[in-house]
Task: structure prediction
Amino acid sequence: MTLAADLLDQADHLAGRERGRPKQASLRRAISSAYYSLFHLIVEDASRFLVGGSRLLPSVARSFDHQAVRAAAAALGDISRKPTQAHWLRVHVDAPISPELTLVCDAFVDLQEQRNKADYDVGASFTRLEANGFVNLARNAHSLWPSQRGTHNAHALILVSAKLLRAR
Amino acid sequence: MVSFVLDKALEKKLTKPLPQIDKGVVRILAEIALNSLGEEWLYFRVVLKDDPTMTATSDVFGKRIQNISTALRNRAAQLNVPMFASVSFVAESELPRQKRKIA
Result:
């Protein structure tokens, strides 16, 4: 099992704990783990795409910045949904961006925001269904990513995330 | 920062039911609020009928929320709402009583 898969399983486990009235701590950690499972899934593949099996891989993986991946995912989601809107990245991607990659990108953006709330907003409160919803969002993204990671548009996502492709 | 106003007419279009997508949707709530980075986001909150299959391991539930999320984000884009649309789900029994009416 990879770290990404283990984190997804852990998120699933935490979202289902405490039958009846779940503890907020369990639901918050479930949402956070769901986000990190997707982050590590993308970063692991991105690192392999950049340096293959090199011993540089852990250091390259460590260099990915959460906000940069989020900005890249948000850009692809925008381009996908608004095909006529101008965007610097549009010339670098194949149109149309697949619904599957769009869903992965949207899931990443949404999950990162929910993870920020779950980890830092003490005023927020989550229900089990909300937590289940976010865990499932991550699960859907996990199931779709393998068919997308080798595509040109996924490579664009990776390069923008790594800040190797940017607006000039 | 440019502030986007969600007027009643737009709110109505955003929150109209999704009969073709999922019959289990009771109501859709939409509001513009700041996210953790201070950006304006459109928050959809989808109220679902209580259903024992709504667990994290359920493929049926996973597919349902995937379809609903995609449909709502596409709807927001078609209505030219310029910000990201975040979608979360709540069970009918988890809402205060006054918000449980059918959309």
About this structure: The mean pLDDT of chain A is 95. The radius of gyration of chain A is 16 Å.
